[in-house]
Amino acid sequence: MGLRDRLEVDRLAADRAGSVGVSHWRQRLLEEVNLDELNGLNLTQRRARLEKVTALIVGREGPVLSANERAALIRRVVDEALGLGVLEPLLHDQTITEIMVNGPKNIFVERNGRVQRVDTTFASEDQLYQTIDRIVAQVNRRVDESSPMVDARLPTGERVNVIIPPLSLVGPVLTIRRFPRAYTVAELAAKGSLDEASGQLLAAFIRARLNVVISGGTGTGKTTMLNALSAFVPEHERIVTIEDSAELQLVQEHVVPLEARPPNIEGEGRISIRDLVRNALRMRPDRIIVGEVRGGETLDMLQAMNTGHDGSMVTVHANSTEDAVHRLQTLASMSDVKLPFETIREQINSAVDVMVHLERGPDGSRRIGEIAVADGHGRSGFALKTIMKFESEPIGSDLVVRGVFRRFRLPAELATRLAHAGESVPAIFDAAEGEFREVS
Fold first, then answer.
1. What is each CA distance from 432 to 142, 194, 336, 428, in whole angstroms?
2. pTM for this structure?
3. CATH number at residue 93
4. For the chain, what is the radius of gyration of the CA atoms?
């Protein structure tokens, strides 16, 4: 059954359930079920048990329903008791990458890069608030008028943002970003996100312990690319990951994930990304991976890259590789350690080896737009050399992005460094000279 059909059956079942609605059957379920018994079951067993009890209650007390409507009502009741209610069918649809709830009556989803409205709604604002409370409680966070914004995550890894009145003027706003399963670089190449030769070169960069910055706009796939590249870190290395909300899915055994913490109800106890970066330096990491730098922690991350933690990786919001350099400068200047811009630039110049910039096309496709490497550490300016660039053709009426990946020669210093690490360079990167430019 497709999502549209399933939503329609759910709506009809709720209408046929009578004036008491789904909330009544949920309350009856909670009265009938043995909560102590549920505590000893896993999620699958718990859902099966609740469905069985709900079926008995609806069969005994409910209205006459068709088989499909009865199954839909039972599912709705269990979703309300155990899951996220009307959002559950959307979460089970693997084609949806983002769910946007603008108040109880307006729900939109992103599918294949396009935003579209869905017919399902919450019964009331109170029901939406209950769903929000259920989400934030799972990660020991809260949202109320004194703290009307919160970032959280679902147990299955989806990133959640909530903002409520008085900041939101349309009622509670809930945004859920779904992350696909962890793709490998080979799978991303098969999807057209990069070419095979560039994937081989990026793998060599990671194994050779080059420091990598992944840049791009919102929704370009920075976390997906970071996950894919992290798979090339050798198993014997100790990796410390630092994130606002844990999203990375590293495959290595020796991984220590750290997650920032917001302040408590008294406004105390906040642990920032910067606090975690500083603490990570005392944890004997071989590599540090920061999900995203947004402030003063950038300076600490650059210093870590410069002091024996080669092979570290980080993402940053930016519109190009040059813009990423400027963003790093601006963010590093937000540190409480006041340094001249020239000194910060020297830190960037010494720390960053590779910049991978991601783009998102009007057709929703995500790909690497450019790979640039630092050419000439120690210069007064930061020099970038393009070694791979996606050149798109003019976009037609179908909005499909087409183009080719162009590759260029690596700087001699970088090629030598890879050779000393036992890594080879794909021959296609020796075909032509690359684009060289100073970043002012």
1. 55, 19, 44, 9
2. 0.75
3. 3.30.450.90
4. 25
- Average pLDDT rounded to a whole number, residues 249-259: 90
CA 364/CA 345 separation, integer angstroms? 34
d(CA 41, CA 35): 10
| Domain extent at residue 126 | 86-179
Q: Is the dihedral of CA 73, 74, 80, 86 positive or negative?
A: negative
Largest Cα separation within the chain, whole Å, is: 80
The angle, 0 to 180 degrees and rounded to 10, between the axes of the packed helices 297-306 and 273-280 is 20
Tokens of 143: 């949202």
- Inform me whether the pLDDT recorded for 116 exceeds 80: yes
- Domain end (from 52, 82, 112): 82
DSSP reduced 3-state for 24: helix
Residue 335: how many other CB atoms lie within 10 Å: 18
**Beta partners for residue 239, in sequence order:** 255, 287
Q: H or E element: which one contains 439?
A: strand 435-439
Domains in the chain: how many in total?
3
Instruction: Indicate if 199 and 307 belong to the same structural domain.
Output: yes
Indicate the residue type of 200.
Q
**Residues 167, 236 within the same domain:** no
